[in-house]
Task: inverse folding
């Protein structure tokens, strides 16, 4: 497991630091580079979450350590630009800033996985995942899509907070130059990693279809990311989509046969999902 963690970490930093150094001509070469970089990066993120979540199941002390230690180091890391005297007048080198940004995202993921794996201990049986997973997806829809949702308010009033609570992925800039570089943008929120770690830890603990779920999540999130980065902007639609929705659909679809729900549990799952959808619809009609 240690070797897997080291390989996943090395791949993460190599992509974060190396991809932006690549300059590609506009056209199919740039499109291919963006697709490949996002594919590799999504695979690396899922790999890191899987490794940390799996190890937290083997060592119960690891999840709280990732959470508490990650918060402490992440907080200290945030002071680094000030300590080094970075400013508009004295900007850091491209490599130094890239390393700072990459480590920021890495520590953020560590905290999120620690919290998700810790919360997963509250789920004592696999059947509880049936109502919990869709409920989390509905809450994510509520915070992201409703007019007065938390994510929308933060993006409008404090975009710097949203950026600090997100992990950067690779995307092509919108500039019309003949050549362009792959530019990291903050797009994957910390909440996505919390629930991804929670799901992964539960799948491992209850002996569900872990590898099939990881493959399904990779394909779904890669396509979802492409929709957010290119599909919706091309249609003039604000690229705000809740990532927990495809995560919930994939996780439930692949593992549904593993659940043995009683009549009461089936009713509870339907009620929870219906209630969450009703709350979201009510907020939309109110124009909150």
Result:
């Amino acid at each position: 497991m240690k070797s897997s963690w080291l390989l996943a970490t090395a791949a993460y930093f190599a992509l974060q630091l190396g991809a932006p150094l690549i300059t590609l001509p506009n056209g199919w070469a740039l499109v291919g580079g963006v697709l490949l970089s996002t594919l590799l990066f999504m695979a690396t993120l899922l790999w890191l979450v899987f490794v940390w979540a799996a190890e937290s199941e083997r060592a119960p002390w690891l999840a709280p350590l990732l959470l508490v230690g990650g918060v402490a180091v992440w907080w200290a890391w945030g002071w680094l630009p000030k300590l080094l005297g970075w400013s508009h007048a004295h900007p850091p080198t491209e490599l130094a800033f890239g390393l700072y940004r990459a480590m920021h995202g890495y520590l953020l993921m560590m905290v999120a996985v620690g919290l998700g794996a810790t919360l997963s201990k509250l789920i004592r049986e696999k059947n509880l995942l049936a109502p919990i997973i869709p409920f989390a997806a509905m809450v994510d829809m509520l915070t992201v899509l409703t007019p007065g949702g938390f994510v929308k308010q933060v993006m409008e009033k404090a975009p710097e907070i949203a950026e600090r609570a997100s992990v950067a992925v690779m995307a092509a800039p919108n500039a019309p130059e003949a050549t362009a570089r792959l530019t990291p943008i903050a797009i994957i929120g910390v909440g996505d990693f919390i629930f991804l770690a929670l799901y992964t830890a539960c799948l491992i603990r209850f002996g569900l279809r872990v590898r099939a779920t990881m493959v399904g999540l990779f394909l779904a999130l890669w396509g979802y990311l492409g929709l957010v980065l290119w599909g919706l902007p091309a249609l003039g639609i604000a690229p705000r989509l809740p990532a927990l929705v495809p995560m919930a659909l994939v996780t439930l679809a692949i593992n549904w046969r593993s659940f043995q729900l009683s009549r009461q549990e089936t009713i509870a799952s339907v009620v929870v999902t219906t209630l969450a959808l009703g709350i979201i619809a009510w907020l939309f009609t109110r124009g909150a």
